[in-house]
Amino acid sequence: MALLKILIFPDQRLRTVAEDVLEIDDEVKKLTSDLLETMYKGNGIGLSATQVNIHKKIVVVDVSEEKNSPLILINPKVEILDPEERTYSEGCLSVPGFYEEVKRPSKIKITATNLEKKEFSIEASDLLSVAVQHEMDHLEGRIFVDFLSNLKRQRIRQKLIKKSKVAV
Ligand code: GNR
Ligand code: NI
Q1: Across-strand partners of 74?
Q2: What pLDDT is attached to residue 66?
Q3: How far, in Å, is the centroid of ligand 2 from the Cα of 81?
Q4: What average pLDDT does range 57-61 have in this prediction?
Q5: From 37, 100, 135, 140, the catalytic residue
Q6: Cα–Cα distance between 37 and 67 in angstroms, integer?
Q7: 166 has pLDDT over 70
Q8: Closest CA to 35 of 8, 65, 1
Q9: How far is CA 118 from the centre of its chain?
Q10: Counting atoms of ligand 1 from 1, which one is nearest the CA of 135?
Q11: Which residues have a Cβ under 8 Å from the Cβ of 129 and sit 6 or more positions away?
Q12: What is the pLDDT of residues 116-165, one digit of tens each?
């Protein structure tokens, strides 16, 4: 197990589009275990490989109260089951300290591969739906701040640059 370093917005590497996982090998298994450890340590409900600068389609999610229900999604695909939008105040481990309302379709169907190389599908609503859509955005190089006004996004950007001395 290892804690991984999380990229912070506006790091351009967060804009990389992830590639399909072609083989579920020991490297992928190690990465999912490290992603889970890093997510739990950061009190997150999800984490994508993109955020730790690994540009493969792998995300982990755990929206349980007890933090004992990890969900691993490899090469996830999403289908919208109910396009009616719900608003949720989102945060992101790559945008620390900022929470803003984002609207997303309320109900989705996720199809993905698990570590046993089996394809599975689940339906998600509420927080799980929000978390999975947020994570899948990361795999496409999107961040929740992209849904905000330019003004709000620029303010967040400036504050995080001042704080972390990140190169832009
Ligand atoms: O920990 C997280 N909380 C959260 C809250 C509302 C909507 C999405 C999220 S995901 C976030 C962890 C993270 O940054 N995942 O990419
Ligand atoms: Ni995030």
Answers
A1: 58, 113
A2: 98
A3: 23
A4: 99
A5: 135
A6: 11
A7: no
A8: 1
A9: 21
A10: 16
A11: 86, 104, 105, 106, 107, 108
A12: 999 999 999 999 999 999 999 999 999 999 999 999 999 999 999 999 86
